[in-house]
């Protein structure tokens, strides 16, 4: 019997060793062993909120996920906990809003990202249930293939000194303005070709009214709980407007947004007491398309995003101070 336990212990050693390796190098600080993490993964940000709920939270997709926390705190005068993550659909953002509102320590204010792209019925992912399961089950986290791959990648970055590259560029003429087919664009290639990546989802663009109705229901819950809700439509580049929003949809995306979605959104805001800051249609920031947009949706993290972040949180403060 003693020999059997000895052999089982020897067999378990590699597993225990890998588990220790995983806990030491998993990039999301799931177990809270490090003071902080640079991970923008949803599991990391939600787990951080569970441990230390913030009073001011940001919910949205990648256009909100890359805010500089120090700049946000400096401009707004308070710390914000960023729960935004890349690719978040409107359904996932609403699930997350409901999750924080129903938490043991709900926030006092929420910035909620919205866009014509996330309103679209052709873009509707749903990962929140799996995230909630993983948040409450460490075994599910450890056994998840994606998180194991992330751990190995993070270990490689640690030993090589690599870091994730920011979304920024100092574009050089003509190489950064010439497409693979030889076309020379008036703006850098990444921006010029970005609309084509959106065509498949926007060709049959239509409004997810059921999700907008759910947003209004959660806005009512915010009102009842005394939570200040600000819905923010992020800016887009001019060529997204002209090549996507004015071309696709029946009627066009722009017409449906301006004639249906925005009037309804503003009307509900008046009734339910939330704010709408629209930089997508009504108040696009004065930005240079070529130097301050990294692509059609994402602002350059050095030259564009800080400019908009300052405007956004100044506008947000002014709105709520005037109430």
Principal-axis shape: globular
Average pLDDT over all residues: 93
Question: What's the SSE pattern?
Answer: HHEHHEHEHHHHHHHEHHEHH
Rg is: 22 Å
Please, could you describe this protein's structure?
The protein starts with a helix and ends with a helix. It has 323 residues and is an alpha/beta fold. Helix 4 (69-76) runs parallel beside helix 16 and helix 5 (90-101) runs parallel beside helix 12. The relative contact order is 0.12. 52% of the residues lie in helices and 7% in strands. The radius of gyration is 22 Å and the shape is globular.
Give the secondary structure arrangement, pairings included.
Layout: H1 2-25, H2 42-51, E1 56-59, H3 62-65, H4 69-76, E2 81-82, H5 90-101, E3 109-114, H6 116-119, H7 128-136, H8 138-143, H9 145-160, H10 189-192, H11 199-202, H12 209-225, E4 228-233, H13 238-245, H14 253-272, E5 275-278, H15 289-292, H16 305-322
Parallel strand pairs: 1-2, 1-3, 3-4, 4-5
């Amino acid at each position: 019997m003693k020999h059997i336990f000895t052999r089982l212990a020897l067999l378990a050693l590699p597993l225990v060793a890998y588990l220790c390796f995983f806990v030491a190098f998993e990039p999301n600080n799931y177990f809270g062993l490090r003071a902080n993490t640079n991970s923008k993964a949803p599991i990391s940000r939600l787990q951080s909120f569970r441990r230390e709920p913030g009073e001011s939270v940001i919910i949205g997709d990648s256009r909100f996920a890359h805010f500089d926390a120090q700049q946000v705190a400096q401009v707004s005068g308070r710390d914000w906990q960023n729960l935004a993550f890349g690719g978040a659909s409107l359904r996932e953002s609403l699930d997350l809003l409901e999750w924080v509102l129903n938490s043991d320590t709900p926030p006092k204010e929420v910035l909620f990202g919205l866009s014509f792209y996330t309103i679209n019925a052709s873009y509707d992912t749903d990962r929140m249930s799996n995230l909630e399961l993983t948040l409450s089950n460490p075994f599910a986290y450890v056994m998840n293939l994606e998180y194991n791959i992330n751990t190995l990648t993070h270990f490689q970055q640690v030993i090589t000194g690599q870091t994730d590259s920011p979304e920024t560029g100092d574009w050089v003429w003509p190489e950064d303005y010439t497409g693979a087919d030889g076309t020379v664009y008036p703006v850098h290639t990444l921006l010029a070709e970005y609309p084509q990546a959106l065509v498949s989802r926007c060709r049959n663009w239509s409004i997810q009214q059921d999700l907008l109705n759910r947003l209004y229901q959660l806005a009512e819950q915010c009102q009842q709980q005394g939570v200040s809700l600000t819905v923010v439509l992020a800016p887009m580049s001019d060529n997204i407007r002209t090549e996507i929003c004015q071309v696709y949809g029946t009627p066009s995306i722009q017409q449906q947004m301006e004639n249906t979605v925005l009037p309804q959104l503003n009307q509900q805001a008046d009734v339910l007491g939330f704010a709408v800051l629209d930089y997508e249609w009504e108040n696009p920031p004065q930005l240079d398309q070529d130097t301050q947009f990294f692509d059609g949706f994402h602002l350059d993290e050095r030259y564009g995003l800080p400019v908009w972040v300052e405007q956004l949180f100044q506008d947000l403060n002014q709105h709520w101070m005037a109430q």
